[in-house]
Amino acid sequence: MESVKVFAENTPSLRELARGRRRVFDDVECVVPSRVGAGESLSATVSLWDEYLRLLGEYAGTFTLASTDPEARFPDRLVVAPDDDPVQTLDGIAFETPGVQYLTLTDGSGRRFVSNPVRVTAAEPETRLYWGDIHLHSQFSDGAGTMTRGFEFGRDVMDLDVVAYTDHDTMGFFIPPRLQQRRMHRTYFDRIRDVTEAHNDPGEFVTLFGYEWTKQPNMGGHINVYFEDPDDAELFDSITPETNRYEKLWRRLREWQESHDSDVLTIPHHPAETMYPFDFSAVDYDDELAPLVEVYSQWGSSELPGSEGNPKPVTMGQGEMNQPGHYVQDAHELGYRVGVMGSSDFHAPRPGRSHIHLRPHLPSLSDVWRDGIGWGHIWRIWDEGSYTGGLTGFYAPELSREAIFESLRSRRVYATSQPHRILVQFAVDGTAVGDADSTVTADGPRDVSYRVAGTAPIDRVTVVKNNENWHVAHGTTDPDAGLSTYTLAGEVTDDEPVTGLYWDDDRGEDADVYYLRVEQADDGMAWAGPVWAEPVE
To answer: What pLDDT does residue 9 have?
Structure first.
């Protein structure tokens, strides 16, 4: 009944829905690889969108290209005819000057569109930065559309490197939980595995295999389970008595690890949402099997409460818990070594570009005919109070399942909002997130450094230490400011003794905990960290 109440309170007007039938050119997305060597031959994916983030066909116009790198090579223009595909590939691109570089596209009216930032290194980089959306739902549970369409959209339209579907093992609301459980065990789990395997293309596009261990409404939070090797994967669902509690699931997964050469990990998400809350303080949390938390998705951010300054608090569903124990900062205070990542949790075949945060609008009949009726289309009609989805940046030496899985396991990842492929580097005493178990020894003053390159002007960069805004660097709040405002870097010394964090007499963190929060003038965000500074023994 609570879900019905939420929908009733957010029913849009017919006039508002009718407005959504318009198709007006609004945006260009230009995606290039984020970390490259000087002189490396590259391609860019350019896509055209209307104001409701629908790919826009029948567009006619010319875009003039330029670059911040005066030595860069690229086509001088992109001409789009009405019968051209709204997704175009630009070849023959190479940056020659080390540093952060951008491409720009300017249309006939003088409106400029900026690519994601590219960090150019003098030599071929040992570690690349890959981008993924690894929390999606399909017709195999409560989503609209097929996994195949989603993988193709992520690969061909959004130029993502990594995508994963995590359909529900059990369900509530309009799918009886035990019906979904039976379908997953009998056929769906194997079919998800087959589609995932069919689209994995090492070096070009990586698909991960997983599912969502799903507690029912108001009975607890949700956890995504990811297997390194789909052939080894088993379904341990949230209803079966042996795995119907968090600790039971982790215990069973540890037993599974002992008998397999591949690995498994879990990631809780939207822990601060009232309908599906995850209380870090009420569980015996396993931060080896669950080394990350999905800090941000279409639900909002579970970093900290809205009342304490969270710019994107959970407003979707029944809103945020606003109680201790349900936030990433609480997990750190309890002493759990968890990093952060982001995904969309979108229920339609659009990894990397969710669109239920827009004004309510009706799906087209072709959308419904092709994809069916799932939450991905239902949510488009209501004002759910959602946000853009999230992305994960993976630092890895190569694009393979093994390398991406190791990035997750070692916490060598960070989160951004969609579609903002913000470059973030964060380190304490030279130790970056994910290196050396993200841990340094505080045997003197610590040098905390960051380098950020945005997809829009940077508003502020905040170093959070022990859950307090310890250092804030300000940029500009003007979303139309020039490219010189898109980057911000700094280094600050912490010469205070280590205090750690206190939760209660039995729980806390001996180390100081540092992480980074990035806010752009256009509302884009990123989160990176933590790095732990342990006291000298």
So the answer is: 62
